[in-house]
Amino acid sequence: MSTLSVSALPTLNAALNGTCALLLAVGYLFIRQRKVAAHRACMISAFVTSTLFLISYLTYHYHVGSKPFGGQGAIRTLYFTILISHTILAAAIVPLVLITLYRGLKGRFDRHVAIARWTLPLWLYVSVTGVIVYWMLYHLYPPL
Question: Which residue among 5, 24, 67, 122 is least crowded, i.e. fewest CB within 10 A of its CB?
């Protein structure tokens, strides 16, 4: 049985973020089509995927710390703009997701919909910008 190297975790994290974004988008399409069971399955899967991401992300940063961004000029400004908005919203999204999921699972659909209108776009933004941050940090300007 092989184990996953800590150095592979950023790629895994990006894959989990991308998967979450896809599940969120498909889940949204399902609820628009009134396919409630499929919507529920996608959203629970997105939650599980995000939870796995968080575990992997914390494991990586516990072992490695942070990596400096090597870009300069305008790309550096863009990177930090995306990173800062991503980080702030990533912290804010956790309680929103938990409340939204709880209300949906408890059948409190009027309250679920009211908060989901905020949760979905923010969660989608965090998932997509997570992939962008990964790409910029590890592929556009990879660490030495």
Answer: 5
